[in-house]
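Side project, low priority. Logging it here so it doesn't get lost.
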Amino acid sequence: MQSRTTARHFDLTEELKSFTAKEIDKLEKYFNNIIDTHLILDAEKSRMTAELKVKVHGTVLTSKVRSFDMYESVEKVINKMEQQLKRYKERLKDKKAKTVQKASPRIRRLETSTMPEEMEEEEML
């Protein structure tokens, strides 16, 4: 997983950078196939904004939070993304289950159509 952190209108400290990296690494617990993450931190007067974009196979998930503390913004945006990743993973499971259900009647029909032929061959022997 590639991870980028961008600071707008302020200097990114090493402490904040390590904190964000640690928080972003927690996302892999919820979804293993994360391709890329981009955290954008923005400071406007007293409002601190954290925006997180996570690229997974087929889509980009985005969450954005504003607060008065940058650390709080980062924690909240990570929590939001955890919820989105859980929902995305659940949707993938549901989608996969539906395709298996659609395919299973076809498999059953194929199995039943070949069974009488096999029975006829066994009777001939």
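Brief comment: The longest strand covers residues 34-44.
Revisit when time allows.
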